Amino acid sequence: QLKQQQTLNKNLWHGIPVDTQLYDIHGCTGLMIAASNDHVEIVALLLELGANQAVKDMRGWTALMYAAHAGKWGIIAFLLDWHREAAILTPRTIRRIQSPGYTGGATPYTPRSALRKALKGNKYRTLVDATDENGWTALMFALRCGWESVVDALLERGASTNVVTHDGKTTLMIASANGNKKLVNLLIKKHVNIDR
Predict the structure, then answer these.
(1) What is Dmax (Cα atoms) for the chain?
(2) Does an H or E element contain 16, and which?
(3) Cα-Cα-Cα-Cα dihedral of 50, 51, 54, 60, to 10°?
(4) Is the pLDDT of residue 88 over 50?
(5) Least confident of 69-78, 110-119, 147-156
(6) Over the Cα atoms of the chain, what is R_g?
(7) Nearest CA to 143 among 182, 194, 195, 104?
(8) Of 54, 60, 137, 174, which has the most beta carbons under 10 Å away?
(9) Predicted structure pTM score
(10) 19-40 pLDDT, tens digit each
């Protein structure tokens, strides 16, 4: 991971585009690496430079999926809030996001009406419900790993509970296999289809 971060720093210094995929076994981008390692300042920098959150690695994983798999709920909130707000970050906003109590939501600079409008957009829906080569979403990775805070952050931001993987698994099946009653209850509150 350190070698990947050093490569990222070198690429940024030499002006290589931020979405250029690094040469590792998965084809990760710098944004994916920063997201999985909980480096909010690097994520913010890459997004400001125009990094595309929809880019997928060779397995079809996005930066959001890397963060979900690693249990980085703050990064999840940050990525999705960045996307829907399209806000210019200030050092104050970055410090707020890094604080332990951050659960996402509007910055002081973003009107609530703009957030509601952005949440209805297809581009946002595509990002939160993007699937990998097996049909898994970020929500499914978080459910499998048992990351309650990540599941909650994704559900609050509109992740679909009714996606089905290519081999027929649903979010409810994944949560049930994990054995975590709280995760199952979170899905039920979001009207998951219990008969699938």
Answers:
(1) 53
(2) none
(3) 160
(4) no
(5) 110-119
(6) 16
(7) 182
(8) 137
(9) 0.73
(10) 655 557 778 888 999 999 999 9
User: Residue 133 above 80 pLDDT?
Assistant: yes
| CA–CA dist 68, 153 (Å, integer) | 10
Q: With contact defined as beta carbons under 8 Å apart, do 53 and 84 qualify?
A: no
Collapsing DSSP to helix, strand or coil, 170 comes out as: strand
Query: Cα separation of 153 and 158, whole Å?
Result: 9
SS (H, E, C) the chain: CHHHHHHHHHHHHCCCCCCCCCCCCCCCCHHHHHHHCCCHHHHHHHHHCCCCCCCCCCCCCCHHHHHHHHCCHHHHHHHHHHHHHCCCCCHHHHHHHHCCCCCCCCCCCCCHHHHHHHHCCHHHHHHHCCCCCCCCCHHHHHHHHCCHHHHHHHHHCCCCCCCECCCCCEHHHHHHHHCCHHHHHHHHHCCCCCCC
- Cβ atoms within 10 A of the Cβ of 73, count? 23
Instruction: Tell me the one-letter amino acid at 160.
Output: S
- Distance from the first to the final alpha carbon of the chain: 39
* C-alpha–C-alpha distance, residues 32 and 128, integer Å: 15
